[in-house]
Structures are given as C-alpha cells and as structure tokens.
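Section 3.1: Structural characterization of target chains.
Under the original work plan, the team committed to producing a structural model for every single-chain target entering the pipeline before any wet-lab resources were allocated. The record below documents one such target. The sequence was received from the expression subgroup and is listed exactly as submitted; it comprises 724 residues.
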Amino acid sequence: MVPAPHFQISPGALNENQAKQLLNSYGIPTVDETVAADADQAVIAAEAFGYPVVLKGMGAALQHKTEKGLVHLHLHDAAAVRRAAVRIGEAAGKDLEGLLVQPQISGQREFMAGLFRDPQFGPVILFGLGGTLTEALGDITMRLAPLTAFDMRQMIGEIRAQKLLGPFRGEAAVDQHSLIQVLQGLSRLALAHPEVAEIDVNPLRVTPQGKIVAVDALVMIQPPPAPRQSTPPVPPKEIGKLFHPRAVAFVGASAQMGKWGNMLPANTISGGFEGKIFLVNAHGGEILGQPTFRQLTDIPDKIDLAVVTVPADKVIDLIPQCQAKGIHYMVLITSGFAEVGTEGQALEARLIEAARQAGILILGPNTMGINNPHIHLYSTGASVTPIAGSTVMVAQSGNMGGQLLGFAEQQGIGMRGFSGSGNEAMITMADYLEGFEIDEVTRTVLVYAEGFKNGRRFFEAARRVSRKKPIVLLKGGQTQAGQKAAASHSGAMTSDVRVFEALCRQTGIVHVRRPMDLLDLAAAFDSLPLPRGPRVAIMTFGGGWGVVATDLCQVQGLELPELDAEIVRTIDGVLPPYWSHANPVDLVGHPEPDSTFKILETLMRWEGCDAVINLGIMGRRAFVNRLLSAVGKCDPKMNGNTAELYHQVVDQFEHQFLTRSLELMTELGKPIIGVSLRADTDFKTVISLPGQKYKGVFYQTPERAALALAKMVGYQRFLREQEK
C-alpha cells in the first residue's frame, strides 16, 4: 500500500495530481505522472518517460479539462510538448497550477468508477462504461459502501457492455483483480474520509494487457454534514411484545359510527380479540355495549397497550396516566403531528421525549393501527380479518395497507401481523425488520415505503434479514411526481431511484412495482419451495395460453428447456398423437385425470426442470356451472342430480390434482404454480390442505405466475451467491 498523501485535504476540489495520490494510497492503480512548472520541465519529464506522452493543465479549478482544451494527447517530440504547453497556458490562465506529464496509455476500452454520498443511505460506489459516452449511454451500476466481494462481482457483471470485459480486438480480457482493486479502494476511502463528497475516476483505461489504470480523476472535498438526529433503535423483542397485548384500552372511544374511536374498538371486539378490552371516554357512559372509563387510571385491570384517538394536543397529557398504569406501548392513531409541518414537528418532538422518559414505546403517530390474527387482534381502521399465517406487512400508507389486508383476506393469504407505521416517530422500518428477524413465526416480510428515517440502519438490517427470510418491498415515490406526492403525504425524503434499486439488489430485497405484486409474492414465498434454477416446464389445456406463458416467462428471464426424448415417449403414452411434443406441453383438451396427474409427475421428476407452471387445469367449476345453466335452459329433462354429479366430478378432480401437487412439491422440493380458470367471487390465490407442508398457489393470469416465479428464482440466486 502506498503511504497516505502528504498534502493537506481542505474544502474544494483537489487538483488532478493530488486526487491520484489519494486514490493511489488506497490501492487504486493510477498512471505514472510528473508535475512540471513550465514547458522546459515538461520536456525533461517527457524525455524521461519516452514518447509519446500526454500533457495536461493542472489546477483545482480546472475541471472538465478536455472541453477546455487542457488535454493534449499523442505528443511525439519536444516541439509538440512545448506547443501544447503554450496552448494550455493560454486556455487555463490564472487557474493553472502546473503541467502534468504522463506516458500515453494505449488501449481501446475505457470504464469509469466513482463515489457520491446519498443523503439517506450514505456513500455509494459507481462503476460503468467510461470516456465521453458515460452520460449518454448511462451504462452504470452502483452499490452502497462498504462493498463485499459479492457486491463487486455483481457490479462487474451488471453493466451491459460485457463484451468489453473479455478479449477485445486483439487485447487481453480485463484483469478482474484490477477492477476489484479500484472498487475496493473506493469503498475503503469512502468510509475513512467522510469529507470526500465525490470522486469521479474517468477514464479507467484498459491496457492491451488487460490492466486497469486511472488516467484522470476528480475529487471534491467538503465538510461532512452534521450527523442527522437518528431515532434510537428499539430492542427487537419489544416489537413482538407490542403485537401481543393481553389487555387493550381504547382512549378516545366514540359512540359515533365512522369515527376512529368507534371503528377501532368495534373491529377489535367483533374480531374476537382473545384478551381484555377497555374503552376510555371522558364523558363515561356505555359505547358498543361496553361500559366506559373516564380516564386510564380508572381501569382496575393491568393494561398492556393503549390505542389512542384523542386530538393531537391532548395526547401528551396521557403520558403520566400511562406511566401510572404501567402501560409501556401506545398505538397513536391521531394525526396532526410531523406530517403537517413545523408546528406539528415540535409537538411530536415534545411527545416523544415525554414518552421516552416514561418508558413508553409509541407506534405512529398518524397510523392505521395494528393487526395480529394469531390472537384475533384486528385493531385497524379497515374492517378486515385475514387468517393467521406467517406473512407480516408494514405500510407507511394506512389506506394502502388496509386495501392489501382486504385482498389478503379475500385470497386466503395468512398474515403474521400488520402495522401502519405512520410517522415512525419511535419505531422505524429498520426496527420492524429487526423485530421480524427474530420472530420464529414470520417467514415473509412485506413492506410499502415512501422513505426511510434512517437509511443506513435499514440497509444494514435488510442485508441481514434477507439472508433468513424474503423481504418483498414496494416503494412509493419512484417517479418525479411520485416523489412530490410522497413528500406531501408522509414527509418522507425520497432518494435517487437508481440508488434504491441498487440497495435492493445488494441486500436481496425483492423489489416489486405494483401493490398486488406484494401479495402475489407473499403467496409464493409463504406457500412454495424455492426453485433451484430458472428452468420451467409448462403444461396447459390451451395451446395459445401456453405460447403466451412462454413469452412471459422469457421476458422475466426464465428458461423453457426442450423436452428430453424420454419425457416425450412417456407423454406419448398418455396423450393423443397430436399433442405438442414440446415445452409447453399442450394437453389438447384431454381432461382425463390419470393422464393429467401422470404428466405433472413426469415433468416434476424431470432433471431438466426446476418448476412447473400449469394453466387452466384448476378452476373449471365456474365454467361447468355456466354450461349446466345453458343446457338446463335448452333441455327441460336436466335435473339437479345430474348437475350435482358434474360438480362432484370436477371437485374430486381438482382436490386430487391439488393433493398430488402438494405431495410432489414436498417430495421433490420444486414449486408448482397454477393459473386458474376461475374468476368468481370464491376464487382464492392460496389453497391449503390439512397435514401438507406446502400450499397450492393459483393466479388469475399467466403474467402474475411468471413474475412470481422469476422473483423466487432471483431470490434463490441471491442466497446462493451469499454462500460463495
């Protein structure tokens, strides 16, 4: 390692020579160069290097040197060096600090690397195609520092110009170790020097031998911003306790239907909460068939959780009562705090300080509430009661969360719990992740977020949690209009979209772009084994449907391998000779149960396949109903017994198909994903059977099936990469 540079680092831009000294001290290979005071010294330096050489104007104020005529290439003699020195002096004027003399580095390929500091997530390292086309082509990838070996391999493999990394026009392949040196050096430098605000190493030239050399560099120095006041971490076990109260008091209970003080206790009582429920209203009386207490301290029983809907300016008065009653947790539904501006921010700050001193943990304010189906706690504004399961959801938008909970209930997706995180005054997204990390019931984490109170903590928590259980995340505010809406909605400060996408790739977060994708992925991750790879076999009752599904799979990066000869021979034995003889396997409308089961098992046992998608095999009852109705209108002899017989046949077939699918998934560890014909109100995405390890998953469209499988493949790939 080269010793640290001897010059003083002060605010502003370093000159090019200083910038390279700094880079070189962190192991980043830079071009040899000499600083010359004038043309005579430049000629001496050029003679020492040997021609051809490069001459540049040097100065902290001299950025974008090429555009200003301050870079002269391919100088082959002393006269050319002197002429270049004169032109540089005329162009640079008083900003010229000296002349840089460098040997001319040959090579046809140029990359770039760099560093900037994101306001939410901290130092970010970039790598991509360099030279004058960097901005035009935008072939750049990025990751948050510190970089791991996995991060650097991913970055190098992500740029589109992969051909430039291999042997190119007679030049050797790029030395990967040299690239790693550059990225690793920038990562270390970013952490060691918070005053370095930006670095642009462009170009990184590739020599004919494949070595990487930084021939130009820009380093911007500025005083590091004052540390942002961060929310203290919440002990992970406290998150679990918050979701498992034995007694709940609703403060601000109301007899008026439609008010939060009425909806929340009504939903909790009707949902069958297993603990005790108390209502608090300053006027006393009876609400929802329950006696009310005028204040918290009047309740004779021990209270674990207070759900509060009183006006914002009255909330702080509850802190002494909570402390006197030994209440350690509050779900603060009330709005009118930080989300409304400066005055609300001050009010929130006073409340949180008082709560901390009293040992009270506040969820919210401005939250939709919480939900834990495992104890029948449905304390949210939305009247939904999803079944108990192992998927947990946190949403910064209460309305979004309520809608998704409703879909989860309708589609049979089991929930571990739900929280509308609100303003996250005390409990941030990072705290939730750390709480879910240690929860043994939670298998899948769903997040809707618009911004992050502590981006670095979220990044670190997500990086750790994703290795144990999938995090599926939808981010609001990814367009310019969306960012503006997010800021006005929750006060969230959004970050550059590309930085966030890089964070997802780096941490293994499964990033989705539509609300329903959250639940589709929850169904898949919670119900199916992870695929071992991207190879898919499709079986379909319709040829066109199979063609469309094939296209959708390939768009998502999935592969449809050709059928082995043995597979073809096996299917020949159970289908008519005019079947497709290819993947997708078209069942040619042949609904014979035994042949359907045989083909499913054959494809699942095929070593060339990692997952099976079936189309149109399940969900036929709705079509049978319509057919029976049509026949009944035409044939007066049709009777109820005949209709019931048809229903029994269909139901028995689907039950057998589902049972066999779950058995094969358990035995072989491969997922089976269905696309159902059914579109009636009784349709459910997830179907479970008693005693089975896995569940049946059936989407309404092939594009949803292909996306879910592709995201599972990507997550599995992430897990495997972590093991290398």
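The two ends are 27 Å apart (CA to CA).
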